[in-house]
Design brief:
It contains 19 helices and 2 strands. It is mostly helical and about 475 residues long. Helix 6 crosses helix 9, helix 8 runs antiparallel to helix 10 and helix 16 packs antiparallel against helix 17 (about 410-435). Residues about 1-5 have low confidence and may be disordered.
């Protein structure tokens, strides 16, 4: 018992560091005076940087703790880096955003950090109960963040919708956990995998029902069709910086748990869930892209785009194996950069804290503000999968994995959906460069933190697209540590 304690603390090190940072930000906010609260944001960013460095330091540890319920394997540490990146850039671009709102800065930064703690717990959890605990820590913080701009009615509405539908989905997740416990006698993924490898009859049927219920719960969190109804309204109503965090961090955390549970814990049922995921992938890609074409609001368009990208990620899960899993991890890294950058541009185009959300508000932006136009063009083309950007590399790895696994039809459908997505992504470019407009767009030079966020994400989007092999190998090593 005493010998196991150091291992347990090592497993919790990234979580403890970030929890300590969140508490420090909360306490510091109590005695910090004056309207300038950027110091709180920088304190959070430093804590995230320290957590990221700690995660890199632990890369070769591969330790487990708490009776096999949590692990600091490379898989969890890879996701820790994505979470720190997403939260850090969200804090950075929020410094420019919050000064135009009446949002309580200390509460805002603290909740983002606690949400990130929940994400890390989800990625490190190797037990269904711990996954649920991490999910709740993340979800409760994000529910509050979605409605934190209390004077905005649509922000309150977004929080209420997200909370009600999220609670409903959590019920399915809990019932699924109960079913799997009844079938296998455990909630630990390694034990479940061992039982399912030799299960049959009623035990297997009960486990299959549990798997289906888990699929519904995770489907809601990743915004897969038909569990996506909350996404456009919540993305549109939440503060734009929080929308960015939900689109990147929450989705990555959900896929971290989703992939670990299904590709490892429920591998014995892969013959059942792969068929269902095949259908969900096609439905999610198609509905997301087709409905996105019809949108005239940039945040709703990006919401449906997020749904479509969940479909692409499901393709990697269907492909399974080393290639599919590695592609999912690489794509999530690239997707984080593309999406955070795109939402930073949306925030930069806002006035008085409220973004110009109609597509026509982007008319002529490419000429009036060249860097804004260039950055948005890079992000839109990358999301569409145009080479040599990271979006193309990510889709290439996903669809190549599907082909290698024999899912040629699924890969073809994915490519066709990427072609459809070109219509609405390029539509933004048409507005910026081929349409005259007179919208009053603030200069990014007055918002240095937003400018820094865009600069970092533009450079990373290009570099990871031109030189993807290093990051892909990093993702491959992370995925191979599962199990």
């Amino acid at each position: 018992m005493i010998a196991a304690t150091p291992v347990a603390w090592l497993v919790l090190l990234p979580v403890l560091l970030l929890t300590g940072t969140a508490l420090l930000v909360m306490v510091t906010d109590l005695w910090m005076e004056g309207p300038d609260r950027d110091g709180l944001g920088w304190l959070g960013i430093v804590g995230l940087a320290v957590t990221a460095v700690a995660s890199i330091t632990l890369w070769n540890q591969g330790e487990t703790g708490f009776g096999g319920m949590m692990s600091v394997d490379r898989y969890a540490l890879f996701f820790n880096l994505i979470f720190c990146l997403a939260a850090g850039l969200t804090l950075l671009m929020s410094m420019s955003y919050l000064e135009l709102t009446d949002i309580r800065v200390g509460d805002y930064y603290t909740l983002i950090l606690f949400a990130t703690v929940g994400m890390m717990v989800m990625a490190a959890a190797t037990d269904l109960i711990v996954i649920f605990l991490g999910l709740e820590v993340m979800s409760i913080a994000v529910y509050v963040l979605a409605g934190i701009w209390r004077r905005q009615l649509r922000s309150t509405e977004a929080a209420l919708k997200y909370f009600l539908l999220g609670a409903f989905a959590t019920g399915f997740l809990l019932f699924g956990i109960a079913m799997l416990y009844g079938a296998t006698g455990s909630t630990t993924l390694n034990v479940i995998a061992g039982h399912l490898a030799k299960a049959g009859g009623e035990q297997r049927m009960l486990a299959t029902i549990g798997m289906a219920l888990l699929l519904i719960g995770f489907g809601f969190k990743v915004a897969a069709v038909p569990f996506h109804a909350w996404t456009p309204d919540v993305y549109e109503g939440a503060p734009t910086s929080i929308t960015a965090l939900m689109a990147v961090g929450v989705k990555a955390a959900a896929f971290a748990a989703f992939t670990r549970v299904f590709l490892h814990g429920l591998a014995g049922l892969s013959g059942d869930w792969s068929v269902v995921l095949w259908g969900l992938a096609v439905l999610t890609m198609t509905v997301g892209n087709v409905v996105a074409v019809l949108q005239q609001n940039i945040k709703r368009m990006l919401a449906y785009s997020s749904i479509a990208h969940a479909g692409y990620l499901l393709v990697g899960m269907v492909a399974n194996g080393e290639n599919g899993g590695s592609a999912v991890l690489f794509y999530l890294l690239g997707y984080a950069l593309m999406n955070l950058g795109a939402f930073a541009v949306v925030m930069a185009l806002g006035k008085r804290g409220e973004p110009n959300e109609r597509l026509e508000d982007y008319a002529g932006v490419g000429f009036r503000h060249p860097f804004l136009g260039f950055a948005m063009a890079i992000f839109m083309l990358s999301l569409a999968g145009v080479p040599p950007l990271v979006g193309f590399a990510g889709k290439f790895y996903l669809f190549a994995a599907a082909v290698k696994s024999g899912y040629i039809g699924l890969a073809v459908i994915g490519v066709l959906n990427s072609v459809v997505s070109m219509y609405y992504y390029v539509g933004v470019l048409v507005q910026m460069y081929m349409t005259e407009g007179s919208a009053d767009v603030p200069s990014p030079t007055t918002r240095p933190y937003l400018l820094a966020t865009m600069l970092v994400t533009v450079i990373a989007t290009i570099l990871l697209g031109v030189f993807p092999s290093g990051a892909y190998e990093f993702a491959r090593q992370a995925f191979l540590s599962l199990g």
